[in-house]
């Protein structure tokens, strides 16, 4: 009779993607040499998984800056969109915001250069100014970038998403502000937030899958999954595979040594 009172608690169900097979790729930062092998690993995994529906391939942003092949990374993602193996979805990172801001406001170039913008300019064949304070040179560089950017790339940067929700998961670039509903998060928080999000106690409305703050190891936690492993410093690019059985980490290493 008492047995009913002490029934063991049902094991909590694994978080769900609504039956969908989903892959999310961390911050690529111009490292096509790590993206290519990771895409291969994901494609093999997807083939072996025999999903009922076309798998989703989500990128969490920060395609450009720091690594040597920013333009090449965007070109590769556009290629994946043209193919139909995956439903490709792309989030906006703070580095893409910086690129767009530089096109509007050339004087921002000096700031952008401080966090890796010069490598993006170079990847589009634009010579970065020799002196970071040379206003005239930044105006010329901004005009040169506008000219060098293929229309498809500009459209790509302008149409990036801020949040993608799939089942029990929400994918964003940086994180979310604790205590604010997902539907009311600000763009600034979604692409820039760090400590207030990373140290927040408890859970959010959904499990947040994010990049932006590099960690040596991917972080698979009850409240969030961090997949930025700082490829430009570690040489390791990380993705997470999600379905109704839970998360699994997939990684690839850059072929060339990581830039210092
Ligand atoms: Mn970022």
TrEMBL record:
Database matches in InterPro entries: Ap4A_hydrolase, Calcineurin-like_PHP, Metallo-depent_PP-like
Sorted UniProt keywords: Hydrolase
Protein name as it appears in the record: Metallophosphoesterase family protein
Gene3D superfamilies hit by this protein: 3.60.21.10
EC number(s) recorded for this UniProt protein: 3.1.-.-
Residue ranges occupied by any Calcineurin-like phosphoesterase domain in the UniProt entry: 22-216
Domain of life: Bacteria
Enzyme class at the top of the EC tree: hydrolase
Species the sequence originates in: Phenylobacterium conjunctum
GO function term, MF aspect, one: hydrolase activity
